[in-house]
Amino acid sequence: MSIDLTLAYALQLDQQDELAAYRTRFYHTDSDLVYMDGNSLGRLPAHTAERVAQIVRDEWGEKLIRSWGINWFQAPIQVGEKIARLVGAGIGQVAVSDSTTINLYKLAMSALMLRPGRTKIVTDTLNFPSDLYMLQGCSHVLGGKHRIQMLEPVDGMRVETQAVLDAIDEDTALVTLSHVVFKSGYMYDAKTITNYAHQKGALVLWDLSHSVGSVPVELDDWGADFAAGCTYKYLNGGPGAPAFLYVNNALQAQALSPIWGWFGERAPFSFELEYAPAAGIQRFLCGTPPVLSVLAMEPGVDLMLEIGIERLRKKSLQLTSYLIDLADARLAPLGFSLGTPRETAQRGSHVSLRHPDGYRINRALIEEMNVIPDFREPDNIRLGVTPIYTSFKDIWESVDRIEKVITEKRNLHFSAARQTVT
Ligand SMILES: *Cc1c(COP(=O)(O)O)cnc(C)c1O
After folding, report:
1. Which of 133, 179, 182, 214 to mutate to test the pocket of ligand 1 (most atoms within 8 A of CB)?
2. Is the CB of 211 under 6 A from ligand 1?
3. CATH, range 50-306
4. Are 194 and 218 in contact (CB under 8 A)?
5. CATH of 7-31+308-413 given 3.40.50.2000, 3.40.50.920, 3.90.1150.10, 3.40.1160.10
6. Chain segment 335-375, per-residue pLDDT in tens
7. Among 10, 168, 289, 349, which is disulfide-ready with 396 (CB 3.0 to 4.6 Å)?
8. Hey, whose CA ends up nearest to atom 14 of ligand 1?
9. Is the minimum distance from the CB of 379 to ligand 1 under 6 angstroms?
10. Whose CA is nearest to atom 13 of ligand 1?
11. pTM over 0.85, yes/no
């Protein structure tokens, strides 16, 4: 079956899209801009701009420190409970705090403390480097006795489930992977891996940075032990918005954070000199949360809850499939190859297109074509598909403008020397 390559068809798909109206719930100033980087920094929900202005004025400006007693102290847990509904977690298991990297560190250290006799950590080379640095830091702090096994992808984009299972043994303390990997968008079979790790007595920590708000996540059903993820990507929480963390109820009585701070203490305002951990998820908080940023992410999360993850996933797969079809037809002949699995069950919500001159093509898209994807070494142009506001026309325009960069040789206008932020 050949695909309809016309712009008219993209516009027809937009007309049939039941989520199309949500696009207008976001702040837009440039109707020509094709924003394909919502998996790095989500757009600004229109309501967030108003909410933040109101919070700053009323809660900080007027009520001042009294706001701590009204809604600020509970905010990390309250917003966490909303995120919990997006990741299949029952109440009392999710909190907002710190950055993703810091949460991963707290959770990985917690897991390693719960498995003192074991020395192996299983992860993969597809993981986000910060996750790997964090693990190296854990091993370093714990005296260097832990060995980090990094599984290699078979085809540059995925590690087979069986290869993960084969790596898990009786010496494995922790298995930690990105559920959806940041370069290729490959999605792991989290439930199978979690179950098997448990059979071997290992604990599992999932990084949900590229999953939350884009694919169904069922932490309780998977039996996950720990999880953490970003809120500034698909949740549209804003630049530097704090991350979230999950600790399974079954572990909460024993699991400890490695960073003992007063916000994780049983009674922070008793100012006791000896630390006693708070009951429940609260013990994984450290110090004063960035209140404005925690509250600023709430409208974005509310929008996701309003739609529901099933509908978001359905549209995401329609968009990524359409993108892959167009890329096969129009870009493959120009030297692009697909850096993302074709199987829908193995795909998150972005599509990587690989090209030997990917870096300069990406520069030309941003500087000359008003398309914003991003670039990940060595040759991946990542097109983030954010089902809540990406349109089928955006997909069509992306492919059309990528083709123009090549046919008009616009990539040659740029140097291949890398800029600081790509
Ligand atoms: C974006 C991302 C991070 C970012 O971590 P920060 O601490 O928020 O900078 C970590 N892990 C993965 C898998 C990511 O995609």
Report:
1. 182
2. no
3. 3.40.640.10
4. no
5. 3.90.1150.10
6. 999 999 999 999 999 999 999 999 999 999 999 999 999 99
7. 10
8. 209
9. no
10. 128
11. yes
